[in-house]
Structure formats: C-alpha cells, structure tokens
Write a structure and sequence with these properties.
This protein is of the alpha+beta class and 216 residues long. The chain is built from seven helices and six strands. It has a three-stranded antiparallel sheet. A three-stranded antiparallel sheet has the order 4-5-6. The chain binds zinc ion (ZN) (2 copies). The site of one zinc ion has 7 residues, from loops.
Length: 216
C-alpha cells in the first residue's frame, strides 16, 4: 500500500473548526489510535505523545502529518525544536499532561544516532538497497532486498592500512574470509553480526546457516 492509498483508507481525524487557520504544529496525546506515524509507519496508540506537522497539500486539504514525538525527535529534529519554541502543546484540544523536555528528547536522539553509527561497524548484515551491486567475491549480482553480508577488507594507502566494507552473498562469505586481505573472521561472526546489524536473531541465524552450509 502506498502512502497515498493509506491516507485515503484512513478516515481523517476531526480537524479544528473550518475557516480557522491551522497552526503549523500540534503536540498532544493522541485522541484515537487511528493515526499512523509517518516516520516509523506504525500506529500511534491512543494517549501516546504525537506531533502533528501541518501539510498544505494533503488528500483532504491542509492537515497534519502525525509522528510519534520520539520518532520526530530522531528524524526531524529541527521541526521538534520549532514546535517546542512555539509551545505547540497549546494548540492541542487537550494539552498533554506531561511532556519530555527538549533536553531529554535531544539525549534520546543522540543515543539513537550512536546506535545507528554502531550498526555500521564491520561486519554486518543488511538488505541489499539497490539490486545494482555485484558480490565482491563471485561477481554475480545481488538481488534487491536480499540479505548480504558486509565484511571488513584491509585497504592500504601508502603505509596506512584501513578496513573498508566488502559486500558479498551469504553463500560467498566463507570463500571471502579466506582471502588474505579480509580481516573479518568466521570465529565470533554470528555474535558480531547480531551486535552490528540491528536485525532480528532469526534473520541473522538464517544468514549463518547459509554461510555455514556453503563450500569455502
Ligand atoms: Zn513512529
Ligand atoms: Zn557471491
């Protein structure tokens, strides 16, 4: 379902009285469970904190794009700062009882950012984003959306050696790890992939089975 279809399927929430210009932001406790977070795409439960960012061109005319307040803090920080500066909770029908302070949201955001950065530590598993890359081991294309393993490969510039990413099919990992310049090791690989990938254990284990079932 595309976003547009989803919007058509979701009945709009009652807006403010017609004719009154809508303020650019609203921060409130969700009045129903019908809205969906535009950041994480999950439902916003009734009573949880959400921020509405006014959009002029919605399907039903001007309306709010809702986000969990925490999601917006992670992905649209400037808007959250603006909304706080404007005290956007005053635009709510029922102002929320307790709001996290801007400092608290900033700390949450920094923590999420750190986690994201950490995820890029090698080695990790990820879904192939484009379907355009080829496996650096066998040279065959990697299917868009399929899981690939990114291992560490040493690259030397002058007298400096750095570890760079090398993406391969799970079935090609064993062969890749035998290359002398690949620094990732099979020992401890499962733990490292779990730690760095941010993917559910089942998916990592499925990849591990593919790795272990392949010939080196
Ligand atoms: Zn969300
Ligand atoms: Zn391959």
């Amino acid at each position: 379902m595309t976003d547009n279809e989803r919007e058509k399927n979701e009945a709009p929430e009652p807006q403010e009285e017609p004719g009154e210009p809508l303020p650019p932001y609203v921060i409130e406790a969700a009045r129903s469970s019908r809205s969906r977070c535009k950041s994480c795409r999950r439902a916003i439960d009734k009573g949880s904190l959400r921020i509405g960012i006014l959009s002029e061109g919605g399907f039903y005319g001007p309306g709010y794009m809702w986000h969990h307040l925490g999601c917006a803090a992670r992905r649209q920080w400037e808007k959250v700062e603006e909304a706080y500066a404007q005290e956007a909770w005053k635009n709510a029908k029922q102002p929320p009882g307790k709001l996290p302070g801007l400092d608290e949201l900033r700390a949450q955001r920094e923590k999420a950012e750190e986690k994201r950065a950490k995820r890029k530590e090698l080695p990790y598993v990820e879904e192939d984003p484009s379907g355009r890359a080829r496996c650096k081991q066998c040279g065959e294309p990697m299917e868009k959306g399929s899981l690939r393993v990114v291992v560490g490969k040493d690259v030397t510039f002058g007298n400096q050696t750095r570890t760079g990413p090398m993406a391969v099919h799970p079935r090609c990992v064993k062969a890749a790890l035998e290359q002398p310049d690949v620094s990732t090791e099979l020992e401890g690989l499962r733990e490292a992939l779990l730690e760095n990938s941010g993917l559910p254990e089942e998916r990592i284990d499925a990849v591990m089975r593919e790795i272990e079932g392949s010939a080196s």
